[in-house]
Amino acid sequence: MKSRRSWEQALEKHREAVLEHERRNATKLLGWRTRHHRRRVVGVVALGNLIMITAAAIVTEDDTAVWVTFACLWFTGLAVILAGQHVLRILAGRMTAQYLGVLDERERLWRYRVNHIGYQVAVALMIVAFGYIMLIAKSAEAAYRGGLMLMALALLATSVPGMILGWTLPDDDPEDIEELSATVDAAGKSGKEANG
Q1: Long-range residue pairs from 142-148, CB within 8 A, at least 24 positions apart, any chain
Q2: Which residue range(s) make up the domain with 69?
Q3: Where are the transmembrane segments (predicted)?
Q4: pLDDT of the chain, 196 residues: tens digit per residue
Q5: Neighbour count for residue 102 (Cβ, 10 Å)
Q6: How far is residue 73's CA from residue 70's CA, in Å, rounded to a whole number?
Q7: Domain for residue 175, yes or no?
Q8: Is 62 exposed, middle or buried (0-12, 13-18, 19+ CB in 10 A)?
Q9: Integer Cα distance of 73 and 61 in angstroms
Q10: Which of 114, 110, 109, 103 is nearest to 22 (CA)?
């Protein structure tokens, strides 16, 4: 009985932390919470994925110039993907990576749908990776090149659910954004008065 109670307390504490994190993120990038802006960010994430796949495809030999080009492309693509996914998580709200206990039924349904599509895309990309590895199997450094392509495709697969949400979610209600902005401004003023 004691372990159940401590488990429930830990779960409630985690839920409160998740809700606090959500409240903090809800005040960020308020002007970007439109489908138009989210689709731009989805395009940036897709571009980052394309850069990483291109980098994995160009590694062919021990030429220093090829490796320098690879490293520049690879890490640029990785930075673009990570930054884009972070922005998408803020713009798409709690549906992307939050605890299921804080989601309502509609949000859970959307999350299940995009995760299911993401899983299907991941399986298809692993088949593509297998085909790529089979094509390069007899070439130099095939295992290394195949591993890089596998990693690039795996990153693409992890990006898909957030990209789908960013592309398909409707615009946030402007009244909700105005109300949230007013609440944040009021909280900021009362916090300054309490500290000042």
Answers
A1: 144/59, 145/56, 145/59, 145/60, 148/55, 148/56, 148/59, 148/74
A2: 36-168
A3: 41-59, 65-88, 117-137, 149-169
A4: 567 777 777 777 777 776 676 777 667 777 777 888 899 999 999 999 999 999 888 887 777 788 888 889 999 999 999 999 988 888 877 666 566 666 778 888 888 898 899 999 999 999 999 999 999 888 878 888 899 899 999 999 999 998 998 898 887 666 655 555 555 555 445 445 544 5
A5: 15
A6: 5
A7: no
A8: exposed
A9: 16
A10: 103
Does residue 4 lie in a domain region?
no
- For 191, the token pair is 């916090």
Distance CA 33, CA 181 (A): 13
Whether the full predicted model's pTM is greater than 0.85, yes or no, is no
Burial of 99 (0-12, 13-18, 19+ CB in 10 A): middle
The answer to whether residue 181 is domain-embedded is no
